[in-house]
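Our collaborator T.R. sent over the components below with a one-line note: 'Predict the complex.' Nothing else. No constraints on interfaces, no templates requested, no preferences about which chain binds where. So this is a plain run: every listed entity goes in together, and whatever single assembly comes back becomes the starting point for the next discussion.
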Amino acid sequence: MGFGDLELLTLQQYWWIIISLLGGLFVFIMFVQGGQTLIDTLSENETEKTMLINSIGRKWELGFTTLVLFGGALFAAFPLFYATSFGGAYWVWIAILFCFIIQAVSYEYRTKPNNFLGKKTYEIFLKINGNLGTFLLGVAISTFFSGSEFILTNNNFVDWQNDLRGLEALLNPYNYLLGFSLVFLAKISGALYFMSSIDHEPIFNKAIESIKYNMILFLVFFLGFIAWILLKDGYAVDVSGIVFIQENKYLINFAQMPIIFGQFIVGVMMVVFAVFSAIVFRKTCCIKTGGVGIVFTVMAILLNVGFNGTSYYPSTTDLQSSLTIMNSSGSHYTLMVMSYASLMVPFVLAYIAYAWYSMDKVKITQEEIEAPDAHNY
Amino acid sequence: MEEHLVDWSRAQFALTAMYHWIFVPLTLGLGFIVAIMESIYVKTNNEFWKKTTKFWMTLFAINFAIGVATGIIMEFEFGTNWANYSWFVGDIFGAPLAVEGILAFFMESTFFAVMFFGWEKVDKKFHLLSTWLVAIGSNLSALWILVANGWMQFPVGMEFNPDTVRNEMNNFWDVILSPVAISKFLHTIGSGYVMAALFVVGISAWYLLKGRDVIFAKKSMIIGATFGFITSLFLIFTGDESAHQVALKQPVKLAAMEGLYEGKEGAGLVAVGILNNKKTLRNDEDTYNFELEIPYALALLGYHDIDAYVPGLKDLVYGNELQGIVSAQTKIDKGKIAIAALEDYKEAKKENNMIKAQEARAVLEKNMQYFGYGYLKSPEQIVPPVATTFYAFHIMVTLGGWFTLLFALILYFSMRKDISDYRLLLISAVWSIPLGYIAGEAGWVVAEVGRQPWAIQDLMPVGIAATKIATTNVMISFFMFATLFTLLLIAEIKIMTKQIKIGPEGEH
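Returned assembly:
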């Protein structure tokens, strides 16, 4: 018995679970992005700022890699989504890519002598990545619920109907809800991460303060987003593949998939609990609880929009062009091959965890950053 | 499709790819050179080697960051600018990219952090292991993306599915073990190793010319030149195999590489030549204004047989019955039949007419191998830009030969005498750094311009592969990318040269 014996639908579901998991992991690792936006807020002087940047600077590549894998996995498992969304919503994705190009160089170049653009510019780059990049990703994902304007030709080639090429998502205020939710969530997890990885009282205290008001802002937008999707009409698909509008589709999905709903509730509770312990008990380990909570929550939302006969990338122009996990996936053979490759994931996670543990078991201190032979960002 | 859209889409992809390729080769090779240096440190416990390792590692990191930045763009540009392509072959092409992410990128990025920040945090052996894993991880990522590229040059292991209107993978092993993919991978990483060796040798030569950090420079130079000499031989060997694969799978590209219009038995290889720009497929002008030919060498290179018939562009465009070469027009006709059959098939399916559908499918399958030709307007379109391909190929080969000689000379004089006395050789070594970049880019020009008009050889021309979008969008994003990449490149070069001036004794 191997992956090859599984039904196509089972493989499609398996891959949607993996995509959802990757999405969750990516949002979790966006603590790097959130941290980037806090480098001035949480620091008093250059040494403190350097401590902050070095703390997340050792993790930024994991986030980058997760984003790349997210793209690669979508390409392989759901190529029609890859072609339709990236090619169609051209400017949203190009804008996101720009936000990530400037991140990649900023850590390494910021404090190097003769760096051409100046230290300040690289710090601005980090903030653009942290604020705008995160926001746009949220908006892009929000179109999973709000829909996009495209038609698929009879060769399955995308014909985008709006000349703004994806930027029209910004004209729909509902899409801002998820965008801002992600921005503030990333700030919270960024602060939680600083608390766990840096041993420095002033930063610790400021991190707690920042979590307080970011949590309020986050809750406003996140609850708004949840209320919006649960109350809105959704894009459902019947057994013969016909897409139709169904009232309260996403609410019904939670009701009909109690396990996923449970996962969602547990995830949200864990985030709330992590924030509570950090603020009230000044615990340093909350990034772990909060991280698992984030992964659970995001995963549950993505599973909601992909499972139970739902179109996860609906077209508002032509309902029947909407993408479902059934009509947009790779072939049975490819999904099978990829499923074998996915067995490597636990191994990969294990060595990431090991390396992470080895690097973080000693916290960053002022002495380390100021040591003469320190390799600092 | 709008006029010029495909040109701008190609320009944007070429821009990204060429910028990406400025950074990748150094990552591929310098990773191993640094790992070798650190191994010596761990073995000898000599602080000199730790310092040496750290110096080259700093340069590695400066280069690595921007390689990562350009790399992510490449991956997403398949979607943003080549959406039709992404659907048509995504079932095959996506898998290597995903596997690349799972198996290679995480290895690279996880251990990169340990390599840079772990000196005082993990023990020596784990640190050394991390350095090796970064080198291995970056080379593994090259494997997967080059498998994907090789597949576009020689599509195998798949079948066209008319129901989904795409190609679907049916044999993963055929895809990754394809001889084109393997030879492309080996030749490409080989070029990265040589580039890194040129970098180390050139910078060391600069220190020697300045008379500073002499011991550091000499030792680095020997490691660099040894690594470079061995890998240049490997590069020549794999280059020969690559050319052989091109001859078998992409004869039009081979003919363009050599400017060979008339096919012949036992064709020679033009070692140095200047093309006559009046020459076209339809006239009998001389191909070259000047040429220096090595007899039989092309037949030998391409087919490993000095008497082999090497088809010229005219044979390939107009056909040559004697040699059993089908004309491009015949292929275009068959391609049009295939495209029409696909439409018939879809029509019949809609009408639920199974008999008609089966007939159409049979016709489609019979002509499928020429599917892409059906989109071409004229047989001459199968010929890529000859001059670009020709000169790029010759620049690459000539420089490759020079690098091998350079490494040999440096090794020879380093062993026998004081290399510091050979200033001309040292100056040549410094100037060979930019030449290395030129050779690498030229190699990609041969591979990618040489296969035009195909996005996927014989199956999909670039014009069909591009995303349907108003050209202005792509023009704007092209200039945005060009500006940003150029700014970052300037920053990279300035930081890099500054670090080199600071030298191994300074603070990084």
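Summary for T.R.: Chain B touches chain A through 85 residues (CB under 8 Å).
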